[in-house]
Amino acid sequence: MNKDKTKKQKKGMLRDLILLGIFSCVMIILLLVFPNKQEPVIKTSWDFFVEMIAILPAVMILMGLFSVWVSKETVVKYLGKKSGLKGMFLSILFGALPTGPLYVAFPMASTMIKKGARISNIIIFLSAWACIKIPQEMVEMRFLGLKFMASRLLLTIIFVFLMGLLVERIIEWSDRKNSKLEGGKINAGI
Amino acid sequence: MMSLTAVIVNALAAVVLIISFIKDEKKTWKSLGVALKSCIRILPIVLVIIIFIGLLLGFVPPDKISRVIGEQSGFGGVVITAVLGAVLHIPSLISFPLAASFLTVGASVATTAAFITTLTMIGTVTLPLEIKELGRKFALLRNGISFIIAIIIAFIMGMIL
After folding, report:
1. Which residues of chain B neighbour A139 with C-beta distances below 8 Å?
2. Would you tell me how many other CB atoms lie within 10 Å of the CB of residue A88?
3. FRET label pair with B30: which of A63, A112, A172, B112, CA 20 to 30 Å apart?
4. Can you tell me the distance from the alpha carbon of B78 to that of B124, in angstroms, rounded to the nearest whole number?
5. From the CB of residue A46, how many other CB atoms can be counted at a distance below 10 Å?
Protein backbone atom coordinates (compact mmCIF):
# COMPACT_ATOMS: atom_id res chain seq x y z
CA MET A 1 0.00 0.00 0.00
CA ASN A 2 2.91 2.32 0.80
CA LYS A 3 4.42 1.62 -2.59
CA ASP A 4 1.11 2.45 -4.17
CA LYS A 5 1.03 5.77 -2.32
CA THR A 6 4.52 6.84 -3.42
CA LYS A 7 3.67 5.86 -6.96
CA LYS A 8 0.58 8.07 -6.83
CA GLN A 9 2.61 10.93 -5.37
CA LYS A 10 5.20 10.61 -8.13
CA LYS A 11 2.43 10.71 -10.71
CA GLY A 12 1.01 13.84 -9.09
CA MET A 13 4.44 15.44 -9.02
CA LEU A 14 4.96 14.66 -12.71
CA ARG A 15 1.58 16.19 -13.54
CA ASP A 16 2.47 19.34 -11.59
CA LEU A 17 5.84 19.60 -13.35
CA ILE A 18 4.20 19.26 -16.77
CA LEU A 19 1.71 21.95 -15.78
CA LEU A 20 4.60 24.16 -14.67
CA GLY A 21 6.31 23.57 -18.02
CA ILE A 22 3.17 24.59 -19.91
CA PHE A 23 2.67 27.71 -17.79
CA SER A 24 6.33 28.71 -18.15
CA CYS A 25 6.12 28.36 -21.94
CA VAL A 26 2.90 30.37 -22.08
CA MET A 27 4.46 33.10 -19.96
CA ILE A 28 7.65 33.25 -22.04
CA ILE A 29 5.73 33.40 -25.32
CA LEU A 30 3.31 36.05 -24.05
CA LEU A 31 6.13 38.17 -22.68
CA LEU A 32 8.08 37.91 -25.95
CA VAL A 33 5.01 38.93 -27.96
CA PHE A 34 4.13 41.76 -25.56
CA PRO A 35 7.48 43.11 -24.34
CA ASN A 36 5.83 46.09 -22.65
CA LYS A 37 4.12 43.64 -20.23
CA GLN A 38 7.42 42.06 -19.16
CA GLU A 39 8.07 44.41 -16.28
CA PRO A 40 4.62 44.37 -14.58
CA VAL A 41 4.13 40.60 -14.99
CA ILE A 42 7.57 39.66 -13.70
CA LYS A 43 7.35 42.16 -10.86
CA THR A 44 3.93 40.86 -9.73
CA SER A 45 5.01 37.22 -9.91
CA TRP A 46 8.25 37.99 -8.09
CA ASP A 47 6.47 39.88 -5.29
CA PHE A 48 4.07 37.00 -4.71
CA PHE A 49 6.95 34.52 -4.88
CA VAL A 50 8.89 36.39 -2.19
CA GLU A 51 5.86 36.52 0.07
CA MET A 52 5.19 32.79 -0.31
CA ILE A 53 8.82 31.89 0.29
CA ALA A 54 8.80 33.96 3.49
CA ILE A 55 5.93 31.89 4.90
CA LEU A 56 5.85 28.47 3.25
CA PRO A 57 8.91 26.74 4.82
CA ALA A 58 7.81 27.76 8.32
CA VAL A 59 4.27 26.52 7.68
CA MET A 60 5.62 23.22 6.37
CA ILE A 61 7.88 22.82 9.41
CA LEU A 62 4.91 23.41 11.73
CA MET A 63 2.86 20.84 9.81
CA GLY A 64 5.71 18.34 9.85
CA LEU A 65 6.23 18.73 13.60
CA PHE A 66 2.56 18.31 14.40
CA SER A 67 2.11 15.30 12.15
CA VAL A 68 4.97 13.53 13.95
CA TRP A 69 4.09 14.61 17.51
CA VAL A 70 0.31 14.36 17.39
CA SER A 71 -0.24 10.90 16.03
CA LYS A 72 -3.42 9.81 14.30
CA GLU A 73 -3.98 7.36 17.14
CA THR A 74 -4.00 10.19 19.69
CA VAL A 75 -6.61 12.15 17.77
CA VAL A 76 -8.81 9.11 17.26
CA LYS A 77 -8.48 8.20 20.93
CA TYR A 78 -9.49 11.65 22.18
CA LEU A 79 -12.30 12.29 19.74
CA GLY A 80 -13.73 8.80 19.68
CA LYS A 81 -15.65 9.02 22.93
CA LYS A 82 -16.15 12.72 23.65
CA SER A 83 -19.65 13.95 23.00
CA GLY A 84 -21.74 17.03 23.57
CA LEU A 85 -20.39 20.55 23.38
CA LYS A 86 -16.98 19.45 24.61
CA GLY A 87 -16.72 16.94 21.79
CA MET A 88 -17.63 19.60 19.26
CA PHE A 89 -14.95 21.99 20.46
CA LEU A 90 -12.37 19.21 20.61
CA SER A 91 -13.28 18.31 17.04
CA ILE A 92 -12.61 21.89 15.92
CA LEU A 93 -9.38 22.00 17.91
CA PHE A 94 -7.98 18.73 16.57
CA GLY A 95 -9.06 19.55 13.05
CA ALA A 96 -7.38 22.95 13.29
CA LEU A 97 -3.98 21.54 14.23
CA PRO A 98 -1.49 22.08 11.45
CA THR A 99 -1.38 18.62 9.93
CA GLY A 100 -1.60 17.31 6.39
CA PRO A 101 -4.21 17.48 3.60
CA LEU A 102 -7.85 16.44 3.91
CA TYR A 103 -7.51 12.94 2.50
CA VAL A 104 -5.32 12.02 5.47
CA ALA A 105 -8.30 12.69 7.72
CA PHE A 106 -10.81 10.40 5.94
CA PRO A 107 -9.42 7.10 7.29
CA MET A 108 -9.20 8.67 10.76
CA ALA A 109 -12.83 9.78 10.54
CA SER A 110 -13.82 6.31 9.39
CA THR A 111 -12.09 4.72 12.39
CA MET A 112 -13.80 7.18 14.74
CA ILE A 113 -17.25 6.39 13.32
CA LYS A 114 -16.59 2.69 13.79
CA LYS A 115 -15.62 3.45 17.38
CA GLY A 116 -18.95 5.14 17.93
CA ALA A 117 -18.17 8.85 17.52
CA ARG A 118 -21.10 11.13 16.71
CA ILE A 119 -21.65 12.00 13.05
CA SER A 120 -21.86 15.71 13.92
CA ASN A 121 -18.41 15.62 15.51
CA ILE A 122 -16.95 13.85 12.49
CA ILE A 123 -18.41 16.47 10.13
CA ILE A 124 -17.05 19.26 12.33
CA PHE A 125 -13.67 17.54 12.56
CA LEU A 126 -13.38 17.09 8.79
CA SER A 127 -14.52 20.63 8.03
CA ALA A 128 -12.13 22.10 10.59
CA TRP A 129 -9.37 19.96 9.13
CA ALA A 130 -10.22 21.29 5.67
CA CYS A 131 -10.61 24.99 6.34
CA ILE A 132 -9.86 26.10 9.89
CA LYS A 133 -6.18 25.14 10.00
CA ILE A 134 -4.04 27.51 12.06
CA PRO A 135 -1.25 28.08 9.50
CA GLN A 136 -3.87 28.57 6.79
CA GLU A 137 -5.51 31.34 8.80
CA MET A 138 -2.14 33.05 9.12
CA VAL A 139 -1.52 32.94 5.38
CA GLU A 140 -5.07 34.18 4.81
CA MET A 141 -4.46 37.10 7.17
CA ARG A 142 -1.26 37.95 5.33
CA PHE A 143 -2.84 38.08 1.89
CA LEU A 144 -6.44 39.10 2.56
CA GLY A 145 -6.23 41.04 5.80
CA LEU A 146 -7.31 40.49 9.39
CA LYS A 147 -10.93 41.57 8.85
CA PHE A 148 -11.47 39.19 5.94
CA MET A 149 -9.81 36.28 7.74
CA ALA A 150 -11.56 36.82 11.08
CA SER A 151 -15.07 37.21 9.65
CA ARG A 152 -14.69 34.21 7.36
CA LEU A 153 -13.32 32.14 10.24
CA LEU A 154 -16.16 33.08 12.57
CA LEU A 155 -18.84 32.45 9.93
CA THR A 156 -17.24 29.14 8.98
CA ILE A 157 -17.20 27.91 12.58
CA ILE A 158 -20.87 28.83 13.09
CA PHE A 159 -22.03 27.18 9.87
CA VAL A 160 -19.85 24.11 10.32
CA PHE A 161 -21.51 23.49 13.71
CA LEU A 162 -24.93 23.81 12.10
CA MET A 163 -23.92 21.56 9.23
CA GLY A 164 -22.68 18.90 11.65
CA LEU A 165 -26.01 18.81 13.45
CA LEU A 166 -28.00 18.86 10.20
CA VAL A 167 -26.06 16.04 8.54
CA GLU A 168 -26.34 13.97 11.71
CA ARG A 169 -30.14 14.42 11.75
CA ILE A 170 -30.43 13.50 8.07
CA ILE A 171 -28.29 10.38 8.36
CA GLU A 172 -30.03 9.19 11.52
CA TRP A 173 -33.43 9.84 9.97
CA SER A 174 -32.62 7.94 6.80
CA ASP A 175 -31.04 5.08 8.74
CA ARG A 176 -34.19 4.80 10.83
CA LYS A 177 -36.34 4.85 7.70
CA ASN A 178 -34.19 2.13 6.14
CA SER A 179 -34.30 -0.09 9.20
CA LYS A 180 -38.09 0.37 9.38
CA LEU A 181 -38.38 -0.61 5.72
CA GLU A 182 -36.24 -3.66 6.26
CA GLY A 183 -38.24 -4.50 9.39
CA GLY A 184 -41.40 -4.19 7.32
CA LYS A 185 -40.04 -6.52 4.68
CA ILE A 186 -39.16 -9.12 7.24
CA ASN A 187 -42.64 -8.86 8.76
CA ALA A 188 -44.22 -9.18 5.35
CA GLY A 189 -42.02 -12.18 4.65
CA ILE A 190 -43.33 -13.97 7.67
CA MET B 1 11.07 43.25 3.90
CA MET B 2 9.13 40.64 5.82
CA SER B 3 5.54 41.19 6.79
CA LEU B 4 4.37 40.89 10.37
CA THR B 5 2.54 37.63 9.62
CA ALA B 6 5.66 36.11 8.10
CA VAL B 7 7.63 37.12 11.21
CA ILE B 8 5.01 35.58 13.52
CA VAL B 9 4.76 32.32 11.54
CA ASN B 10 8.55 31.96 11.37
CA ALA B 11 8.97 32.77 15.07
CA LEU B 12 6.25 30.24 15.98
CA ALA B 13 7.90 27.56 13.84
CA ALA B 14 11.28 28.33 15.43
CA VAL B 15 9.91 28.11 18.99
CA VAL B 16 8.05 24.84 18.35
CA LEU B 17 11.12 23.48 16.58
CA ILE B 18 13.40 24.26 19.54
CA ILE B 19 10.99 22.71 22.04
CA SER B 20 10.74 19.65 19.83
CA PHE B 21 14.55 19.37 19.61
CA ILE B 22 14.87 19.54 23.38
CA LYS B 23 12.22 16.86 23.87
CA ASP B 24 13.22 14.39 21.19
CA GLU B 25 15.92 14.93 18.61
CA LYS B 26 15.09 11.90 16.50
CA LYS B 27 11.42 12.78 16.15
CA THR B 28 12.37 16.35 15.22
CA TRP B 29 14.62 15.26 12.38
CA LYS B 30 11.83 13.02 11.18
CA SER B 31 9.38 15.95 11.12
CA LEU B 32 11.92 18.12 9.29
CA GLY B 33 12.14 15.37 6.69
CA VAL B 34 8.34 15.40 6.37
CA ALA B 35 8.44 19.20 6.03
CA LEU B 36 11.12 19.13 3.33
CA LYS B 37 9.20 16.51 1.36
CA SER B 38 5.97 18.50 1.46
CA CYS B 39 7.86 21.65 0.45
CA ILE B 40 9.26 19.92 -2.62
CA ARG B 41 5.88 18.40 -3.42
CA ILE B 42 4.05 21.73 -3.28
CA LEU B 43 6.73 23.85 -5.05
CA PRO B 44 5.77 23.21 -8.71
CA ILE B 45 2.12 24.12 -8.12
CA VAL B 46 3.18 27.22 -6.15
CA LEU B 47 5.20 28.35 -9.17
CA VAL B 48 2.29 27.62 -11.51
CA ILE B 49 -0.06 29.76 -9.41
CA ILE B 50 2.52 32.54 -9.15
CA ILE B 51 2.98 32.64 -12.94
CA PHE B 52 -0.81 32.59 -13.31
CA ILE B 53 -1.20 35.54 -10.91
CA GLY B 54 1.49 37.51 -12.79
CA LEU B 55 -0.22 36.94 -16.13
CA LEU B 56 -3.69 37.59 -14.71
CA LEU B 57 -2.74 40.93 -13.17
CA GLY B 58 -0.56 41.90 -16.12
CA PHE B 59 -2.84 41.05 -19.02
CA VAL B 60 -6.49 40.92 -18.02
CA PRO B 61 -8.05 44.35 -17.62
CA PRO B 62 -9.86 44.67 -14.27
CA ASP B 63 -13.15 45.80 -15.80
CA LYS B 64 -13.45 42.51 -17.76
CA ILE B 65 -12.97 40.45 -14.63
CA SER B 66 -15.22 42.52 -12.44
CA ARG B 67 -18.07 42.14 -14.94
CA VAL B 68 -17.95 38.34 -14.40
CA ILE B 69 -17.06 38.11 -10.71
CA GLY B 70 -17.25 41.71 -9.45
CA GLU B 71 -19.86 43.58 -7.41
CA GLN B 72 -22.34 43.82 -10.27
CA SER B 73 -22.13 40.09 -11.10
CA GLY B 74 -24.37 39.27 -8.12
CA PHE B 75 -25.58 35.73 -7.47
CA GLY B 76 -24.27 34.31 -10.76
CA GLY B 77 -20.71 35.46 -10.09
CA VAL B 78 -20.71 33.91 -6.63
CA VAL B 79 -22.01 30.58 -7.96
CA ILE B 80 -19.44 30.54 -10.80
CA THR B 81 -16.49 31.03 -8.44
CA ALA B 82 -17.96 28.60 -5.92
CA VAL B 83 -18.14 25.90 -8.63
CA LEU B 84 -14.62 26.81 -9.76
CA GLY B 85 -13.35 26.46 -6.18
CA ALA B 86 -15.11 23.12 -5.75
CA VAL B 87 -13.71 21.62 -8.95
CA LEU B 88 -10.15 22.97 -8.83
CA HIS B 89 -7.60 21.05 -6.84
CA ILE B 90 -5.24 23.69 -5.48
CA PRO B 91 -3.56 23.39 -2.07
CA SER B 92 -5.47 25.77 0.19
CA LEU B 93 -2.30 27.60 1.29
CA ILE B 94 -1.81 28.87 -2.26
CA SER B 95 -5.45 29.77 -2.69
CA PHE B 96 -4.96 32.87 -0.54
CA PRO B 97 -2.46 34.72 -2.76
CA LEU B 98 -4.62 33.67 -5.71
CA ALA B 99 -7.72 35.07 -4.03
CA ALA B 100 -5.84 38.27 -3.16
CA SER B 101 -5.03 38.72 -6.85
CA PHE B 102 -8.74 38.24 -7.67
CA LEU B 103 -9.56 41.10 -5.31
CA THR B 104 -6.89 43.28 -6.92
CA VAL B 105 -8.40 42.85 -10.38
CA GLY B 106 -11.87 43.77 -9.18
CA ALA B 107 -13.54 40.62 -7.89
CA SER B 108 -16.03 41.25 -5.10
CA VAL B 109 -15.50 40.14 -1.50
CA ALA B 110 -18.41 37.69 -1.84
CA THR B 111 -17.03 35.89 -4.90
CA THR B 112 -13.54 35.75 -3.37
CA ALA B 113 -14.89 34.30 -0.11
CA ALA B 114 -16.97 31.76 -2.05
CA PHE B 115 -13.90 30.66 -3.99
CA ILE B 116 -11.72 30.10 -0.93
CA THR B 117 -14.45 28.40 1.08
CA THR B 118 -15.41 25.85 -1.57
CA LEU B 119 -11.77 25.30 -2.50
CA THR B 120 -10.87 24.32 1.05
CA MET B 121 -14.05 22.53 2.12
CA ILE B 122 -15.05 20.62 -0.98
CA GLY B 123 -12.88 18.01 -2.63
CA THR B 124 -14.12 16.81 -5.99
CA VAL B 125 -10.83 15.03 -6.67
CA THR B 126 -10.83 13.35 -3.25
CA LEU B 127 -14.57 12.53 -3.36
CA PRO B 128 -14.08 8.88 -4.44
CA LEU B 129 -11.75 8.35 -1.48
CA GLU B 130 -14.21 10.03 0.88
CA ILE B 131 -17.04 7.80 -0.40
CA LYS B 132 -14.87 4.73 0.06
CA GLU B 133 -13.92 5.63 3.63
CA LEU B 134 -17.12 7.21 4.92
CA GLY B 135 -19.90 6.04 2.65
CA ARG B 136 -21.79 7.62 -0.21
CA LYS B 137 -24.49 9.26 1.89
CA PHE B 138 -22.02 10.92 4.25
CA ALA B 139 -19.65 12.15 1.55
CA LEU B 140 -22.34 13.56 -0.73
CA LEU B 141 -24.16 15.26 2.14
CA ARG B 142 -20.95 16.81 3.47
CA ASN B 143 -19.82 18.15 0.11
CA GLY B 144 -23.29 19.24 -0.97
CA ILE B 145 -24.14 21.12 2.22
CA SER B 146 -20.63 22.60 2.27
CA PHE B 147 -21.35 24.11 -1.12
CA ILE B 148 -24.56 25.70 0.11
CA ILE B 149 -23.00 27.11 3.28
CA ALA B 150 -20.04 28.41 1.25
CA ILE B 151 -22.49 30.51 -0.76
CA ILE B 152 -24.29 31.72 2.37
CA ILE B 153 -20.95 32.62 4.01
CA ALA B 154 -19.93 34.44 0.82
CA PHE B 155 -23.06 36.60 0.82
CA ILE B 156 -22.73 37.48 4.49
CA MET B 157 -19.07 38.37 3.88
CA GLY B 158 -20.13 40.56 0.97
CA MET B 159 -22.62 42.36 3.19
CA ILE B 160 -20.38 42.97 6.21
CA LEU B 161 -17.13 43.85 4.40
Report:
1. 5, 9, 93, 96
2. 21
3. A112
4. 18
5. 12
Calculate Rg over the CA atoms of chain B.
Answer: 19
Distance from CA of B83 to the nearest CA of A (A): 17
The span from the CA of A111 to the CA of B159, in Å, is: 40
Contacts of B92 in chain A (CB under 8 A): 130-131, 133, 136
Give this prediction's pTM.
Answer: 0.85
CA proximity to B95, closest of B119, B62, B124: B119
* Neighboring chain B residues of A106 at a CB cutoff of 8 Å: 126, 129-130, 133-134
List pLDDT tens digits, range A67-102: 888 877 778 777 766 667 788 888 888 888 877 778
Residue B73 · residue B115 · CB < 8 Å: no
ipTM of the complex: 0.87
Q: Within 10 Å of residue A76's Cβ, how many Cβ atoms? A: 19
